[in-house]
Specification:
It is a single chain. By secondary structure, the protein is an alpha/beta fold. It has two domains: 35 residues; 140 residues, Rossmann fold, CATH 3.40.50. The chain is built from five helices and seven strands. A seven-stranded mixed beta sheet has the order 3-2-1-4-5-7-6, with helices on one face. Strand 4, helix 5 and strand 5 form a beta-alpha-beta unit. The longest helix has 33 residues. The termini are far apart.
Length: 184
Amino acid sequence: MNIKNILYLLIIFSLFLFLFGIIVYIISLIYSSIKGSPYVPTSKKLLKKFFGEIKFKKNSFFIELGSGDGRILRYIAKYYQINGLGVDINPILVWFSKVYSWLENVNDRVKFERMDAMNVDLTKADYIYIFLMPKFIKKLRLKMEKELKKGVIVISHGFKIDNWDNKLFKILKNKPFNTYFYRF
């Protein structure tokens, strides 16, 4: 076999790997959508706006349900020195979260796990962030009502939490999604 044929095979193999990777990624996004919410990253520009509204307590614990690529939790760990847990059902996004947290040098403060949000222990949370679909939030609300301790702040980006109007203390108007702040 000559060098030209070897290069040709390497190019074909590389294209195959690239296409395979894209297909696996697309399937993982479809899986996330079926299980609760599609992956829709929150813009980094909004993070300052969201979290500038909260006076974080030292040594607090932050849980992000449906953490996607982990940008929210990494931001919190980096700028507010808070520890936390990011949970997502999508194994590829969890892997990216772990890599990004290592690259940003916050992996000692954050942990990412592949898990269904309905199976997360919320009892240690001081803050919870969600950007999930209303149907899933409705199920999650019942879990939160059973597990959350007094004083927990729940930030719901995109959708209100039904029957929590008495807990709502702030709304940030954004386009296309508002952000709702609740104190449990």
